[in-house]
Design brief:
Blueprint lengths: L2 H33 L1 E2 L1 H8 L3 H13 L3 E3 L10 E3 L9 H24 L21 H15 L33 H6 L1
Antiparallel strand pairs: 1-3, 2-3
Helix pairs in contact: 1-3, 1-5, 2-3
Length: 191
C-alpha cells in the first residue's frame, strides 16, 4: 500500500464534503433569489435539508458577505435575504472579479456578433436590449431581485442536464444596473 492509497479516501471525503457544502449554499442562494427572504426552517422545508444544516450554511453565507439578516419583528425566527450591496461595501477583490466577469461577458458578446451566421438558423437572433429608468437605489435593488427571481426556475439546469428541455443551449444572461453619471468637462476632451 502506498502513501497515496492511504491519503486518497480522506481527500475524496473532503472533496465530497466541499461539493456538498457548495450544493447546499448554491441552493440557498437560488432560493433567496427566488423568494426574497427565508428562514432556516422554511429553507429546510423547501430544499429537503435539515433546518440545522440550513441554519449553519445561512450563517456562513452571511459571514462571507453574500446574505444578511432581513428586518423582522423579533422572535426566534431569523429571516435572511441576499445582501443589499452598497458602493462603499465593495472591496478590491469584488471589483477585480467584477472587472474580469465584465471582460468575459464583453468577449463572449463580440464572439457572438462575429460568428452569429455560423449558428443554426433558429439561434441566429438575440434578445439584446437596453433601457434607462429613473430609480432610487432601493428600486434598483428591487428590479435586480425581480430579474433574479425570474431566472431562478432555470438555474438548476446547469447542474442537472436531464432537467433541460430538448433543444436547450447555454444562453448568456447579462444584466447591469448602474446609475448614469453626468459627463464632466474632462470627458469631452477624450471624445
Amino acid at each position: 500500500m502506498t502513501e497515496d492509497d492511504l491519503n486518497a479516501p480522506g481527500e475524496q471525503a473532503a472533496t465530497t464534503g466541499e461539493l456538498r457544502e457548495h450544493e447546499v449554499r448554491t441552493a440557498l442562494l437560488d432560493l433567496l433569489a427566488e423568494v426574497g427572504t427565508v428562514t432556516a426552517t422554511e429553507a429546510a422545508s423547501r430544499l429537503g435539508y435539515s433546518s440545522g444544516l440550513c441554519s449553519f450554511h445561512l450563517r456562513q453565507l452571511a459571514r462571507h458577505g453574500h446574505i444578511e439578516e432581513a428586518p423582522h419583528g423579533g422572535g426566534r425566527a431569523r429571516p435572511w435575504r441576499l445582501r443589499q450591496h452598497t458602493s462603499d461595501a465593495d472591496g478590491p477583490a469584488e471589483e477585480e472579479f467584477g472587472d474580469l466577469a465584465r471582460g468575459l461577458e464583453d468577449e463572449s458578446w463580440q464572439r457572438w456578433l462575429a460568428q452569429r451566421d455560423q449558428a443554426p438558423a433558429e439561434w441566429r437572433q438575440d434578445e439584446a436590449f437596453s433601457a434607462v429608468a429613473y430609480l432610487t437605489p432601493e428600486e434598483m435593488s428591487r428590479v435586480a431581485n425581480v430579474i433574479r427571481r425570474a431566472l431562478a426556475p432555470y438555474q438548476d439546469r446547469e447542474q442537472r442536464p436531464l432537467a433541460r428541455p430538448d433543444g436547450a443551449r447555454p444562453v448568456a444572461l447579462i444584466t447591469r444596473l448602474f446609475p448614469l453619471l453626468p459627463h464632466t468637462t474632462g470627458d469631452a476632451d477624450q471624445d
